[in-house]
Amino acid sequence: QDTNMSDIYEADPLLMEQSIEDWVMTKCDDWRDHYESNYSYRFDEYYRLWRGIWDVSDSERASERSRIISPALQQAVESNVAELEEATFGRGKWFDVSDNVGDTDRNDVLFLRNKLTEDFEDCKVRKSVAECLINAAVFGTGIGEIIIEEMKEMAPATQPIMGGDLQAVGVTIQDRVKVKLKPVMPQNFLIDPVATSVEDSMGVAIDEFVSMHQVEMLQEQGVYLNTYIGPAAPDTDLEPDQDLTVYHDNKVRLTKYYGLVPREMLDSALEEDEEVEFLTEEEDQSRYVEAIVVIANGGVLLKAEANPYMMQDRPVVAFPWDVVPGRFWGRGVCEKGYNSQKALDTELRARIDALSLTIHPMMAIDATRLPRGAKPEIRPGKMILTSGDPREVLQPFNFGQVNQITFAQASALQQMVQQATGAVDSAGIAGQVNGEATAAGISMSLGAIIKRHKRTLINFQQSFLIPFVKKAAHRYMQFDPEGYPVADYKFNATSTLGIIAREYEVTQLVQLLQTMQQDSPLYATLVQSIIDNMNLSNREELLAAMQQAMQPNPEAQQMAMAAQQAQIAFQQSQTAALSSQAEESSARAVKLAIEANTIPQELEIDLINAVTKNLKEGDAEDKEFERRMKVAQTLLKEREIKSKENANEPRTGNANQAGGEPIPTPMEPLRSVGAEDLL
Predict the structure, then answer these.
(1) Do residues 386 and 393 lie in contact, with contact meaning Cβ atoms separated by under 8 Å?
(2) Stretch 247-269: mean pLDDT, rounded?
(3) Distance between CA atoms of residues 310 and 288, nearest Å
(4) Mean pLDDT lowest for which of 502-516, 625-639, 653-667?
(5) Residues 270, 274, 280: CA angle, nearest 5 degrees
(6) What pLDDT was estimated at residue 424?
(7) Long-range contacts, 567-573 (Cβ 8 Å, 24+)
(8) How many secondary structure helices (H) and strands (E) does the chain include?
(9) Tens digit of pLDDT for each residue in 264-316?
(10) 110 — alpha (psi -120 to 50), left (phi > 0) or beta?
């Protein structure tokens, strides 16, 4: 059902008579009463245990005289904080920026990350975050305020004068907006008791003492209203160290409220030309408006305006060390180890008190036999006068010896502190980290410790670190748009492991590396992971050199390809040769098998051929004989013919003399005539 502002104020007419500063201070006073009645005493005791400061309220016995405080809880706080700080800032880059999905140009993302990193270093953000971590470990909740300061940035420079003949040396001054993180102590922070976070609270307030000159300078700049502000009344509850003597002069109690305020009160606090402008009609119907109200000394209004930030967020970030369900204030290291620390301190103090009774000399004296006015003191060289035998009047007295079991009890209590807080020192958890246990036992112990640290680290990143980076980037985009690109960026943390987890992971990687050959493709990747987890000063250079060495050289790649091709050709030739040899062997085997099958047939053929040859040779000899006989017969016939012709011719003397043919002589014996004779 819609209501307007007039109906609301008619139902509660006191709101019309109350100013905005009174309304804010009423809320802050109620919230402070709740804090002091529930958390103030415990937080003070946690602070003393962490600092090692003794207070009379810390005594557990009326007869307790020793004031010693064991450093077990101090070590636990420092160990846990150092682990988270190393996990966050140990690798240099502790946050990353990602652009919208589908945007391939990452130049703006890299520029924003580098610019934020540079400005964070100038504003010493790392130191402030470390202080917030200490507050969270001691009190259970780390709180930081994001403040904006306009500063003059000066840099040395030169400028040419007199036509460029000379150079003037000086400085350049540039107005810059700087976003800083200011740690806030728990006693200086006020929040709605029913809220569990800064965002869902009606509002939060930072109530602290500041120097007078800071307020006056902001008044001169026009940030605060120019009204008279006197020194604040002393209040030890707001001091960081309540055991010191408080300085009362030139201090102003400044209360900065960030949250919802009644709209009509804010309108009445502003001038007519500075009234709140509403964006929509629905927002105009709201009873409350997000605003910033600054009050000095509990009643002087210095500033009241609507939330000027473009994202309408509150400039406060907070995170619990361990979440307590349904409560804003978390559970820190001191609260975890409180009971063990108190028992350990009681044990040590009782032992020291017992030592004073057993070590220091005491005497039992018969007071009736001492001279009048004698001082029964014991010191070297002192003479004691007695009436009678001193052996009867004086007698040494002690309370026996201190039981040795107190050593074991103190050691067990110290181990209980480490178990409660998850801290590991040089001694380690007894028998588990110092070499007395097996490798599996050490791994299990370190795994449990790393798991607890990881849980706190994730809580710190999601609730404190990333919201701070995001809010700081939005303020830079709003108040310095020329230096920062304005876009919707996503921020995430790059810190993952602390020093203990990294050392444990390096050990595991080294053991895995020993089981692998250097020519394995995973060898270089494991070496790169080991270097990345180590806390080396030149880690980035080593990683860059390894990546450059892993990139292929074009000439070497061509040579490798040529060698690979030659090797492939050689293997192919060997394969072909082996294949031909195999084929030849197969053919030879087939041939031998065929020859073995054809041997009987060849023998029969040879026998047939031999018989045929003999027959052919006999026929040839017969034919040759017949031929020779025919040739001989032909010659005989020719000679007979010639002899007949010669007989018919007349005889005219000697044939030799007449030139005729010779007289035939008796016939020569027949000889074999060959083919050459026939030709």
Answers:
(1) yes
(2) 88
(3) 18
(4) 653-667
(5) 105
(6) 65
(7) none
(8) 22, 12
(9) 888 887 754 344 444 444 445 678 999 999 999 888 999 999 999 998 999 99
(10) alpha
Closest alpha carbon to 261 in 292, 296, 299, 294: 292
Distance between CA atoms of residues 377 and 360, nearest Å: 12
Task: Find the distance separating the first CA and the last CA of the chain, reported in whole Å.
Answer: 153
Query: What does the angle CA 257 – CA 263 – CA 264 come to, to the nearest 5 degrees?
Result: 115
Q: What is the DSSP string of 456-482?
A: HHHHHIIIIIHHHHHHHHHHHHHH-TT
The 10 Å CB-count burial string (b at 16+, else e) for 173-192 is eeeebbbbbbbbbbbbbbbb
Ranges assigned E (strand) in 307-445:
316-320, 362-365, 394-397
213 or 413, greater pLDDT? 213
Per-residue pLDDT, averaged over 12-17, amounts to 53
- CB neighbours of residue 61 within 10 Å: 10
Contact 139, 186 (CB under 8 A): yes
Q: Which residue is listed with tokens 């470990």?
A: 137
Residue 9 clears pLDDT 70, i.e. is over it: no
DSSP states along 76-139: HHHHHHHHHHHHHHTTS--EEEE--TT----HHHHHHHHHHHHHHHHTTHHHHHHHHHHHHHHH
**Beta strand spans in 375-462 (E):** 394-397
pLDDT surpasses 70 at 655: no
8 A C-beta contact, residue 135 and residue 141: yes
Q: Are strands 189-191 and 166-184 parallel, antiparallel or unpaired?
A: unpaired
Max Cα–Cα distance, the chain, nearest Å: 218
Better-predicted residue by pLDDT, 419 or 250:
250
Give the pLDDT confidence of 79-132 residue by residue, as tens digits: 889 888 888 887 777 888 887 655 556 778 888 888 899 999 999 999 999 999
Contacts of 389 (CB under 8 A, 6+ apart): none
pLDDT band at 405 (very low <50, low <70, confident <90, very high): low
In whole angstroms, what is the distance from residue 145 CA to residue 188 CA? 11
**In angstroms, what CA-CA distances link 277 with 163, 289, 367?**
54, 11, 92
Q: What is the dihedral of CA 12, 17, 23, 25, to 10 degrees?
A: -140
Q: How confident is the model at residue 356 (pLDDT cuts 50, 70, 90)?
A: confident
Amino acid at 452: R
Lowest mean pLDDT among 41-50, 182-191, 238-247, 477-486: 238-247
Pairing of strands 166-184, 141-161: antiparallel
Task: Return the residue matching tokens 């051929």.
Answer: 609
pLDDT in tens, 159-214: 888 777 788 888 888 888 899 999 999 999 999 999 999 999 999 999 999 999 88
Spell 624-646 as b/e; 16+ CB within 10 A means b. eeeeeeebeeeeeeeeeeeeeee
Determine phi and psi for 317, rounding to 5 degrees. Answer: -125, 145
Q: Are 76 and 417 in contact (CB under 8 A)?
A: yes
Q: How far is CA 615 from CA 608, 610, 611, 620, in A?
A: 11, 9, 6, 9
